[in-house]
TrEMBL record:
The lineage of its organism: Bacteria, Pseudomonadati, Bacteroidota, Bacteroidia, Marinilabiliales. It comes from Marinifilum breve. It holds the Pfam family 23S_rRNA_IVP. InterPro entries: 23S_rRNA-intervening_sequence, 23S_rRNA_IVS_sf. This is Four helix bundle protein.
Length: 113
């Protein structure tokens, strides 16, 4: 692969960002919304930044950060449901997609190691 845009994990992260933005659109708690959106963006951007680094070791490190941000999105999805900011279906979808993406990132990390 020659560019991060070719990576399936980056494409999936991009889709997750769009979904987070869509589901956060009607939330009035802007600090909550901002935090959840920044966590999702972090996944996508850390995949891209790590890919652009000069070594697999660096890419691995950035993937580790991206994977942690998947956990943050998942955690905030539970909270969004608890606070009735999102429907249960929306929250479960974000939980599922972030867990799936986390697994895909982990598989890429195993490949690099």
């Amino acid at each position: 692969m020659k560019q991060f845009e070719d990576l399936l994990i980056w494409k999936d992260a991009r889709s997750l960002v769009r979904l987070v933005y869509a589901y956060c659109n009607n939330i009035n708690d802007k600090s909550f919304t901002n935090q959840m959106q920044r966590a999702a963006i972090s996944i996508m951007n850390n995949i891209a930044e790590g890919f652009e680094r000069s070594s697999d070791k660096e890419f691995y490190r950035f993937l580790d950060i991206a994977k942690a941000s998947c956990g943050e999105v998942r955690s905030m999805s539970y909270l969004a449901s608890d606070l009735h900011y999102m429907s249960s279906d929306q929250s479960r979808e974000l939980e599922f997609k972030s867990r799936l993406l986390s697994g895909s990132i982990y598989n890429m990390m195993k490949y690099l190691k």
